[in-house]
Amino acid sequence: MYMREYSGLRLERRDHGVLLVSIDGRTRMNSLSEQDHADLAALWRDVDDDPTLRCVVVTGVGSAFCAGGDMELERSLAGDHAAVARIWRDTRLLVQNLVECDVPVVAAVNGAAAGAGLAVALLADVSVIGHDTVVTDGHARIGLVAGDHAAIIWPLLCGMARAKRLLMLSERIDGRTAADIGLVSWSTDGDQVLPEALKVAERLAQSSPSAVRGTKRALNHWLRMAVPAFEASLGAEMLGLMGADFAEGIAAFEEKRSPRFS
Predict the structure, then answer these.
(1) Which parts of 124-242 fold into alpha helices (H)?
(2) What is the pLDDT of residues 192-206, one digit of tens each?
(3) Domains of the chain and CATH, by start
(4) What residues does 128 pair with on adjacent strands?
(5) In terms of Cα–Cα distance, which of 204, 245, 42, 5 is closest to 107?
(6) Which of 57, 103, 124, 232 has its CA 20 to 30 A from that of 213?
């Protein structure tokens, strides 16, 4: 897996077969370019093919985890069929590769997470978040279906009623609340997020690989059963990228005003 570089990612091998992946995006919020997005999707297949790895910890550089696609990427998608087709594929592969990766993944959610970043944070096997870190899926806020990962995992984590409320209203919740409703594994003080995640990774790395991987693979069948719902939501999101509501949503976000949807 070290035969190639991953755009926007720092990789560090640690003891006992633990790999630390730090998302290092284009802005202080660790937002991703189109190439960064594609590499984040490809990483998990490469991880799964590396027989020396026992666990992966993923976190963000600085004070953010990952804010998803940067504004240049978002703007480029509006009405561009070819660009939408590429991001459709990469988003599907990000979720698919995470679900199929048998190596356990621990997310150290050290700050804001959205889009692809939130997908990684919530599809990880164990997720540790700061008490005051804010979590939100803001797709509906910019005129899009919550499609990039939400349908496959949110109802399983926090229940359908809460999932509908949080996703349809794009509500913001803090880390404590996210842990209380089961959206993440647990919350802790902000400066303890990565240390806690690394402790979990050490325990997983020194456990029986066959037992840990087999348990993960069996549990992930719940996610595999939800793939049709995920595919439908992702297709609807991509369709929305071609529409007027998304163009208005992005314009309103950049102009710091309320959107006026048709």
Answers:
(1) 150-158, 160-168, 175-180, 193-205, 209-219, 221-225, 227-241
(2) 999 999 999 999 999
(3) 9-255 (3.90.226.10)
(4) 108, 186
(5) 204
(6) 232
**Contact present, 99 and 105 (Cβ < 8 Å):** no
Count Cβ atoms below 10 Å from residue 248 Cβ, excluding itself.
17
Report the DSSP beta bridge partners of residue 59: 22
Find how far residue 234's CA is from the centre of its chain. 14
Task: Provide the strand spans (E) within 85-183.
Answer: 105-109, 126-130, 134-135, 173-174
pLDDT tens, position by position, 204-237? 999 999 999 999 999 999 999 999 999 999 999 9
Separation of alpha carbons 220 and 152, rounded Å: 11
CB 181 within 8 A of CB 162: yes
Q: Using CB atoms within 10 Å of the CB of residue 169, give its burial: 0 to 12 exposed, 13 to 18 middle, 19+ buried.
A: exposed
pTM, full prediction: 0.94
Torsion of CA 180, 183, 185, 187, to 10 degrees: -60
